[in-house]
Design a protein that fits this description.
The complex is a heterodimer of chains A (160) and B (174).
Chain A lengths: L20 E4 L2 H10 L10 H6 L10 H16 L4 E9 L8 E13 L5 E11 L2 E12 L18
Antiparallel strand pairs in A: 1-3, 2-5, 3-4, 4-5
Chain B lengths: L9 H4 L6 E5 L6 H10 L5 H4 L1 H8 L30 H10 L3 E11 L10 E9 L3 E2 L3 E13 L5 E14 L3
Antiparallel strand pairs in B: 1-3, 2-6, 3-5, 4-5, 5-6
The chains are: A alpha+beta (160), B alpha+beta (174).
Chain lengths: 160, 174
């Protein structure tokens, strides 16, 4: 446990950039995510279906896997005490095999709610080349200090 | 959101805003699926991989919050199951009822409550919150449709709400 690094609220500033993440996508990337998220729809594993029925150029990363990548991108930065409260994303362009995903993020706002929970609102994106494929707004709770733990909040003390 | 197109049949309008397909997950939440998802996105968060870290921080092993939608999906096949088994059946019902066979997720928003723990049995309810007017898009003529999946655990605690905005459409039609 001593080796686990957790970011605290005091260490974060508005405007701060998150460390970038780059990942090349293969058909395996797409299919692994689809199966792990129990999404059996053919546009995420059947290239012919994706092209001829969906009108896309190939199979593409599905919604829950997109969410999983974005969550991982943020918790790589926060450490395990970072607790996801809310996430909204818009997939403007599908991510296909052969693409390289570039994850970027910025702290838009820091706030403390009436229960004392410390929040960071983040703007996140997944880009391929010079185009933004996915835009995301996420809200994470961070520990106020080394002794705090957002995961201990329940019921009325957790207002994402 | 209360966007409901005026030209919808009564039978479709009556579906909107009410809970449908209130169902329990087909199995207790299990760590194998958590590992599969973490492996798929190369998520090394020790909360999911190290039981000692999980015990200290979350009081035991949990699933990543963003996996919430995973748990209400049906197995592709089960003994005795008849016909195609599809997640979010209300979405497919509505597509059929309004004659728009294709669909794509335009955006997704989720809020997360009590963590989903290994061994939990969850209950989900499906809601159609909005179904808009017909419009022409790059993919074809269609409607935007908003669906909520509300999830609670076996103690009735709210675990999260997953909201999808779909475009349902006929390919190429204008």
């Amino acid at each position: 446990m001593s080796a686990v690094r957790n970011l605290t609220f005091a260490e974060v500033e508005e405007g701060q950039e998150l460390p970038a993440l780059i990942h090349p996508v293969t058909a395996t990337t797409v299919v692994l995510g689809a199966i792990a998220s129990r999404d059996w729809r053919p546009m995420h594993h059947d290239r012919d279906f994706a092209i001829n029925r969906n009108g896309t150029k190939d199979i593409f990363i599905n919604t829950p896997t997109n969410g999983g990548w974005l969550q991982r991108f943020v918790t790589d930065w926060t450490g395990p005490k970072g607790r996801l409260g809310r996430m909204k994303f818009k997939m403007k362009i599908p991510v296909f095999p052969g693409d390289t995903m570039h994850f970027a993020g910025r702290v838009v706002r820091k706030s403390v709610d009436e229960t004392g929970c410390c929040w960071v609102d983040l703007d996140l994106s997944v880009s391929v080349g010079d185009k933004i494929n996915t835009e995301c707004q996420a809200r994470f709770a961070l520990p106020a200090n080394a002794d705090d733990n957002p995961w201990q909040r329940r019921g009325e003390r957790w207002k994402p | 959101m209360t966007d409901i197109a005026s030209d919808l049949p009564i039978v479709v309008r009556d579906l909107i805003g009410k809970p449908h397909y209130v169902e329990k997950t087909e199995f207790p939440i299990e760590i194998g699926y958590v590992y599969n998802m973490c492996a798929a996105v190369q998520d090394g968060n020790p909360l999911y991989w190290d039981p000692e870290v999980a015990r200290e921080i979350t009081g035991g092993q949990i699933a990543p919050p963003a996996m919430l939608s995973v748990w209400f999906k049906l197995h592709h096949w089960m003994p005795g199951a008849v016909g195609e088994r599809r997640p979010m059946q209300l979405y497919f019902d509505i597509k059929d009822m309004v004659g728009l066979p294709e669909g794509i997720v335009a955006s997704n928003e989720a809020s997360f409550g009590e963590p989903v723990r290994i061994g939990d049995v969850l209950t989900t309810s499906q809601y159609c919150r909005a179904l808009g007017e017909l419009k022409d898009t790059k993919l074809g003529r269609g409607r935007f449709c908003t669906m909520d999946i509300v999830t609670v655990n076996q103690r009735g605690e709210w675990c999260g709400t997953d909201t999808y905005n779909f475009l349902i459409y006929i390919k190429g039609a204008r």
